[in-house]
Amino acid sequence: MQLPDVVRIPLPEGRDYEIRIGAGLLGQSASWAGLPRASAAVIVTNETVAPLYAERLREQLAAVYARVDVVALPDGESFKDWPTLNRVFDHLLQEALDRKTVLFALGGGVIGDMTGFAAATYMRGVPFVQVPTTLLAQVDSSVGGKTAINHPLGKNMLGAFYQPVRVLADLDTLDTLPDRELRAGLAEIIKYGPIADAAFLDWIEDNLAGLLSRDKALLAYAVRRSCEIKADVVGQDEREQGLRAILNFGHTIGHAIEAGLGYGEWLHGEAVACGMVLAADLSCRLGFVPQAFVERLRSLIQRAGLPVQPPQLGVERCLQLMRVDKKAEAGDIRFVVIEGVGCAGLRPVPDDLIAAVLRDHGAG
Amino acid sequence: MQLPDVVRIPLPEGRDYEIRIGAGLLGQSASWAGLPRASAAVIVTNETVAPLYAERLREQLAAVYARVDVVALPDGESFKDWPTLNRVFDHLLQEALDRKTVLFALGGGVIGDMTGFAAATYMRGVPFVQVPTTLLAQVDSSVGGKTAINHPLGKNMLGAFYQPVRVLADLDTLDTLPDRELRAGLAEIIKYGPIADAAFLDWIEDNLAGLLSRDKALLAYAVRRSCEIKADVVGQDEREQGLRAILNFGHTIGHAIEAGLGYGEWLHGEAVACGMVLAADLSCRLGFVPQAFVERLRSLIQRAGLPVQPPQLGVERCLQLMRVDKKAEAGDIRFVVIEGVGCAGLRPVPDDLIAAVLRDHGAG
Fold first, then answer.
1. Long-range contacts of range A95-98, CB-CB < 8 Å, 24 or more positions apart?
2. What confidence score (pLDDT) does residue A56 get?
3. What is Dmax (Cα atoms) for chain B?
4. CATH 1.20.1090.10 matches B179-360
5. Least crowded by CB within 10 Å, which of A140, A288, A294, B260?
6. CATH 1.20.1090.10 domain extents, chain B
7. What's the CA gap between B46 and B78, in Å, rounded?
8. Residue A155 is labelled as binding a ligand
């Protein structure tokens, strides 16, 4: 048995926790050692992931908890809403499960965000464990304690900062991931280069083909390095008072695309990929990076099989959607701009400049 | 202008805050000094309180915030639910209000709990101020950061620990409080005696008539002493890992009565009053306090015009409702028992003993 890679998120008040990364972790009893004691555990998953991994996880947890339930929600971003979340609450309350019950989020970003929000709010907080089964969740959404559901008027608008007690990224679960979702996960991996680590961007460019063909050693490194960068940022700014916002590079336009098309039309990673191209162009027009950097990022994203051109939503509609972005302030839309490869910052950007970029990239 | 009484809640990470208590605070500009800056404030209130105080508060806040909105929800415990809460989110998002927006909870416990939960979850957290206008909210629910909504299967089952940035208890707002609600507030004041302060229990007994006739000096002392006790407990145990549970004296049976009759049938304070009588009897049967203490508490509660006999819900139904209580663990119902006047603890109590008490008091 190979020992997992471990990345630690440093947090105050005894809330720090481990991200364990490795192949086969789901089947190893060591994965569950040291979790909070409780009389019951509930695996929250979706109808796609449940037939693949829920039984394996249930068997493992049955050695730790007297009772293990499985709640399988419908799959997809369009179900990241209150009525679907309420199915988790209904189950917990119908079964009279107490406030020591441990929730396990088995799935991708939607399941992780929803289970985390359920854990944050059920009886004002129960412990939860992230078991991400998509690349995107393993490198980004399962780490750092952002939990949320969507509102018809905006993505992730209702949520909480609430940390898991552990993250367990079993690389073997990526074997069953559709290609489209693998590529969407690569978008968030690519993100870490421009915002924090120029050498990692070089590495991704050099190893893209291997990552796309699911070379497990390469994936292991990409997941670990991504988690290290995220852990470093979250450890410095858990509640996004400042620095943490850089993790949202590409997300301002990305969220507008997702909301504008209807959740689930484009995958989150696809929307972020396209958003990064436009945000890089904005950074260039603001004088921070040369045009060559925009082209370099566009080329990498294109090679990863991800979209570089936004859908034709109309410029005004895009701006309107961006004004409800969580980073907006007093009506100003704020963007994560690249200020040099490996260095990013959050800045208000005038509407007319955003409109020009949207138009020039075909969103108008 | 008389300076307000100030009670401070000590909390880590810069989250400590002031409870200001006094007559006329709503009309004093000093009340708003030092609150977080923002471009907008939203007053969340209900349709009963809005015509009485919303305009006065709006005018005050207009000197501080460029924009001040009012959202008035329907009044009552039966509206402490997700669809009603969502009206607040709809407003915030339709108006594209950003994550610095400050929410003001103007009303009783239901408005305070709901506004607090909205503040805890809108964009993962915005600041909020409690402006309690009922005695119950001033002495209990507005203080300490417990926020929640009800679920059809249990009271306050969905919520968060999320602290306000200030509590402003204007005693003048009690002038418009119906007698029934004044008495319900007295129930939570009485509570602080048995659990924490024998001398305060004596004081309440001596001054009950004056409190019932709304003597402002007596009310001011009762509110301040209640807040001091609560601040002390919450400062030691914000997230109810242990000690804080004593604040739930009378609430295990109280919550069952509220849920069993349908929310709003009995006021929360009425249900708690009755719950305290039964919990005192339990404490007596467990050998902690003499029968004389049970009679003493029953007599005080009766003099306050509060119910001492539970509705006939049936013993089994009561037990079932108590098993989903947040303090229950692994199926055991746990009670706050009085271990001596001014001293309480949380203990599991066998079902048959609870059943006997319920039966003997007429719930069966």
1. A95/A40, A95/A69, A96/B323, A96/B324, A96/B328, A96/B331, A97/A40, A97/A42, A97/A69, A98/A38, A98/A39, A98/A40, A98/A123, A98/B326, A98/B328, A98/B329, A98/B330, A98/B331
2. 97
3. 60
4. yes
5. A288
6. 179-360
7. 13
8. yes
Q: What is the CATH number that goes with domain A5-176? A: 3.40.50.1970
Nearest to B324 among A96, A240, A328 (CB): A96
Contact A272, A188 (CB under 8 A): yes
C-alpha distance from residue B210 to each of B13, B218, B220, B321 (Å): 41, 7, 12, 37
The CATH code of domain A186-360 reads 1.20.1090.10
Residue length of chain B: 364
Q: What are the beta bridge partners of residue A122?
A: B158
Give the residue carrying structure tokens 């497990």. A216
**Annotated binding-site residue? A264:** no
Residue B364 in this model has a pLDDT that exceeds 90:
no
d(CA A197, CA A223): 14
Parts of chain A belonging to CATH 3.40.50.1970: 5-176
Residue B101 banded pLDDT, cuts 50, 70, 90: very high
On whether the CB atoms of residues A93 and B157 are closer than 8 A, the answer is yes
Q: Tell me, what DSSP letter sits at residue B329?
A: B
Average pLDDT, chain A: 96
User: Are A86 and B317 a contacting pair, CB within 8 Å?
Assistant: no
Q: Is B113 labelled as part of a ligand binding site?
A: yes
**Segments of chain A assigned E as strands:** 5-9, 17-22, 40-46, 67-73, 102-107, 128-132, 146-151, 154-161, 166-170, 334-340, 343-348
**Best mutation site among A39, A124, A146 for testing chain B: the one with the most B CBs within 10 Å?**
A124
What is the architecture of the domain spanning B5-175? 3-Layer(aba) Sandwich (3.40)
Q: Complex ipTM, two decimals?
A: 0.94
pLDDT over 90 for what percent of chain A? 93
Characterize the bridge pairing of strands A40-46 and A102-107: parallel
CA distances from A251 to A222, A257, A276, B357 (A): 20, 9, 8, 58
Write out chain B residues lying below 8 Å of A153, CB-based: 90, 93-94
Separation between Cα atoms, residue A111 and residue B359, nearest integer Å: 45
Determine the average pLDDT of the residues in A103-132.
98
According to CATH, where is 3.40.50.1970 located in chain B?
Answer: 5-175
* Distance separating alpha carbons of residues A41 and A33, to the nearest angstrom: 14
Residues B302-331, mean pLDDT to the nearest whole number: 92
CA dihedral sign of residues A344, A346, A348, A351: positive
Is residue B11 within 8 Å of residue B163, measured between CB atoms? yes
Q: How far does the CA of residue B125 sit from the closest CA of chain A (Å)?
A: 7
Q: Is B251 a catalytic residue?
A: yes
Instruction: Please report where in the chains the tokens 């319900």 appear, as a residue.
Output: B184
Among B121, B155, B327, the residue to mutate for chain A (most A Cβ within 10 A)? B121
Where in chain A do CATH 1.20.1090.10 domains reside?
A: 186-360
